[in-house]
Description:
Blueprint: H1 5-22, E1 31-35, H2 41-50, E2 54-57, H3 60-70, E3 75-78, H4 87-93, E4 96-100, H5 103-116, E5 120-127, E6 137-138, H6 142-150, E7 155-161, H7 174-190, E8 195-201, H8 208-213, E9 218-221, H9 223-226
Parallel strand pairs: 1-2, 1-9, 2-3, 3-4, 4-5, 5-6, 5-7, 7-8
Helix pairs in contact: 4-5
Amino acid sequence: MMSNVADNLQKVQERMAAAAKRAGRNPEEIRLVAVSKTVPPDRVREGIQAGIKILGENYVQEAKKKIEALGHDVAWHFIGHLQTNKAKIAVRLFDLIHSVDSLHLAEELNKAARAEGKVLPILLEVKLSTEKSKFGVEEDNILQLAEGISRMENLMLRGLMTMPPLFPDPEDARPYFIRLRKLSELLASQKFARVLMEELSMGMSNDFEVAIEEGATLVRVGTAIFGPRTSK
């Protein structure tokens, strides 16, 4: 039986608020990105009606169909690995891209944003785990990449994103979230143009409470809202 999206959403929001309070943070500083990859549009619509404000998608083509069906009453964030040949369409579709991981991708997004006459907010995806399946810029290269992006007039670097390994115990993810926050502080201290370290996109269904305790401003939660994912 399908779980009730509205009930699930309320439970997640309550857990987010409790985690914020534990950390002495204002719950309103933290926004929920409801991850809707592989979730059918009718179920996503149910989430929007229940109060979801931001949807996160991993695949450009799947997202395009959903955005056409559901419209722009909500913000759409791209959270998956973005191929450079999809940069042009991604710039048109999304309000924020969480997963910029190379200078080449940033250049393509900047060019596409210039053609659209817009300044595109982006986050850098940082690879903090050794898993081969994970994407992201290595820690050692992050300053160089941020400096390169700071010269691109149609991009605004708003923060960082990471995805730690999936641990049975969410506490094991905490060191990764701390590292991302410290990297954000290091970048902020450089005072690069067009680089504002306002956002930390970290934490998913299994560990978002720990991420909030360590400073997350965007948590990406899918399964806990929409139920188990069907394979694409």
